[in-house]
């Protein structure tokens, strides 16, 4: 499959949202609390970012009942989200090389 | 506050500088490393999985027991996966995507050979106890491959660029 062209994505310019997609990009699914702890944010902040990503079509969520009876939310990256993330990271790499390259 | 486009009003609108881009990439790499640490498999997981594989492969060699073995294996596997997900908060079934293909391929070969042996025992081509041997070999292979597969997956996560 052809890799997405390098392009900054406006949704992923927010660092926490980029981090969410980064974590979801390397595994199939991550549970809400695990992702929240990974990012070190409050539940409300996490929910807000997930809502934005969901509205953009970048993530999908599913609820599964836990032993406690309280549902746990699992989040996964959609193909649209994966494509946007890979293109965004490719562009970040291109931009980062500017600082790594020696200046004349 | 969210705007109509669904993008938070706090979203930075400018292109990141080279230093900011590098910091963002470093943060992504740090998250992957932490995620890899969180995927540490509980110590009982592989022995339990090995026991289930033994039940499936050995049970395949006994026509009257196979259905029971299949039910036990399926129920056990669902319980194992559920427990793993609950404990780690992470799930990835697509092992080939994140490395470790060679372990999956090697285990698949062993499993196919052992199921063939068990089938031969079932049909009477070899003595019945060969099904038990096939089950033991499959179980031991699971014990050998499991931790190595985990290590390869975690290593792959840490090294993903």
TrEMBL record, chain A:
Pfam families: HTH_34. Residues 17-95 form the Winged helix DNA-binding domain. InterPro entries: WH-like_DNA-bd_sf (IPR036388), WH_DNA-bd_dom (IPR027395), WH_DNA-bd_sf (IPR036390). It comes from the Bacteria. PANTHER family: BSL7504 PROTEIN (PTHR37318:SF1). This is Transcriptional regulator. It comes from Candidatus Phosphoribacter hodrii.
From TrEMBL, chain B:
The keyword Membrane applies. Keywords: Membrane, Transmembrane, Transmembrane helix. It comes from Candidatus Phosphoribacter hodrii. This is Uncharacterized protein. The chain crosses the membrane at residues 43-60, 66-83, 103-121, 127-146.
